[in-house]
Amino acid sequence: MLLSSRSSPPKPLKITGSERPQYLSVKYLLPRTPIPSPSLPSILPRHGKKPPKLNSRKIVRSLLWLSVLIGVWYLLSYGRSTTNSLSDLTFLTSTGKTYQIVEASELPNHATPLSVTDYDGRNYWTISIPSNLGFPLPHAAYADVCSQVEDVARHVAGSGWQEEQHLDYYHNEPNYIDVKEAQSSHFLPPSIDISSEHHGLPICERSLTYILDAADPGLGSTLMGLWLSYSLAEREDRAFFIDDTHFPYGSYSTFFNGMPEPKCRPPPSAQRVPCPHQANHLVVSAATSGWMFGAAFQETFSQREIFDMARHGYEALFQLRSDDAEYVRERVLKLRTTNDDNNNVDEDEDEDTVHGLVGIHLRRGDRHPFSFAHQLGYLPPETYLSAARKLVGPSSQWTLLLASDDADMYDHNELPGTIRAQTRISLASKKKLSSGLGWEGGFFKDAFWALGLPEHVTAQKGADGPQPTKGRPSSSSSSETGQQRDDTPGPPRPQPPRQMLDVSPEDRDRDYRTHPTKEALQLREFLGRAYLLDLAMLAHSDKVVCGVSSFACRILAVMLGWDRAFDARDWMNVDGSFEWIAFE
Predict the structure, then answer these.
(1) In this structure, what DSSP letter does residue 230 have?
(2) pLDDT under 50 in the chain at which residues?
(3) What strands lie across the sheet with 398-404, from one edge to the other?
(4) Domain count, the chain
(5) For residue 171, what pLDDT is reported?
């Protein structure tokens, strides 16, 4: 009773009966004998129930469920460590179609960047190009790889991705593994070198291959990319190669004398990739020029450095075939010493008078000016002539050479007193041909692709020539065509025309861009040689007038050189106040 309250201490008991009240201490109430020890609990169950027996079936079942859960967790963690999930990434191909990369147990059968993981769990990425695809790949395949590289690199880097570092042209991606290293680490299967070219030479440690592909039918952009690639390879200590397998104009030796001979042989096709720039073996073409010579390239190198690189490539590679080079020398000498092609000649003029040459390049076709007022049309021909007159005046000792992709410009009433830059290979206007097969309005890519097409192709595709073939090749289509098979159900297709019934399956599926007919190839060669002869003749002029929106105008500045083109002002741009650039 005394210890029942714990909230407040108990009051002491008061003893009465005496004069002086006394208080009883608690120790008087405690027993004098020791407190008995508490008893141990009984081994018998309460209420007479027996203890439950140990159920072995439940234990086995619990262990099985636990092992299943552990196994599932292990499989999930192992799958995440061996491959990096890219299922959340969506990419846009060069054809404009979107697709997603998903995890797979096998390597894809097309060129693509891959995310891999080593035994330590560190993530890397590399480029996978199956060896059975051959070399070179269709230009769309290289463009697709470069369009995916940045997204895959960003995904692998995760939180370590720094956008500003990737603006540097020579930034080394720390998570990238070169193809050869990836093969030695068993991330990729080993490649087999089956090329018989340059037999007996060792494989190059670093190389750059420029592919003359069908991504751009224009020769101007091809020459600019070729010259810059040559100088870039020398600057980075890479062996340089030129591949003309898919060149729409035919063989490189048709236009130029020989190719540069390296001291080593190119690596296997699987090791030559278009991106990233730090790869040991690079592939460059018109399809990948935006990544190779884009904003990062122009921010790393100054305008003068880019110009000098193009100039160095021009001096090394622009060597016309012997007969065309001889024609250019003789024509320049003839035009400087006599003026027989010009009707406006003074009778008292000495035959040995040296004439100055003013080259005028007038671009039409599908290349429109940069100037806002004429960007939907063309600069008037009189603009070029008035600019030339400002340079040299009305003196009769100057000969005006005209080169144009529009044959009608040679007889234009706004260009009096001009003569053709070269007459060895001349474009014919439709006005002078009854067959209607002449060149009209300038260079258009669709008209170029339609040259020399067989009857069954024009009947199936129409007058504009074959449709673009930029899709990724499927497993059931040829790797050379680059066409993508479309099995999407739709309305019934029309019956093929009668011209298609007698055509073999090989010719029906043939890509006439990269594998033209004999007649088409001959026409393309004439166009290419005429373009190069025009450039060579205008480059021997004392002054050049052109529009910088044209690649030919930019090339002519390179052929003149920096001192003549800009310091001496022998190169005049009539397309606004825009400066010289290599690529937009």
Answers:
(1) H
(2) 1-7, 13, 16-18, 23, 80-104, 342-348, 462-494, 499-501
(3) 418-420, 398-404, 356-362, 543-546, 571-573
(4) 3
(5) 87
Per-residue pLDDT, 29: 52
Judge if 212 and 311 occupy the same domain.
Answer: yes
Helix (H, G, I), strand (E, B) or coil at 22: strand
Nearest to 270 by CA among 279, 262, 278: 279
Q: How far apart are CA 159 and CA 165, in angstroms?
A: 14
**∠ CA(336), CA(342), CA(326), 5° rounding?**
45
C-alpha 310/C-alpha 300 separation (Å) is 15
Segments in 450-541 forming alpha helices (H)? 455-461, 505-508, 518-539
Which residue intervals of 31-190 are DSSP H helices? 56-82, 139-157, 179-184
Distance CA 95, CA 118 (A): 34
User: Which two tokens mark 288?
Assistant: 């990948």
* Region for 60 from its dihedrals, namely left if φ exceeds 0, alpha if ψ lies in -120 to 50, beta otherwise: alpha
Same domain, 434 and 558: yes
221 in the same domain as 290: yes
pLDDT in tens, 353-398: 778 999 999 999 999 999 999 988 999 999 999 999 998 877 778 9
| Domain span at 541 | 342-439+522-573
- Contact between 447 and 425 (Cβ < 8 Å): no
Same domain, 179 and 237: no
Are 211 and 135 in contact, with CB atoms under 8 Å apart? no
**Distance, CA of 554 to CA of 548 (rounded, Å):** 6
Indicate if 220 and 178 belong to the same structural domain. Answer: no
- The rounded distance, in Å, linking the Cα atoms of 535 and 421 is 9
Phi-psi region of 145 (alpha: psi -120 to 50; beta: other; left: phi over 0): alpha
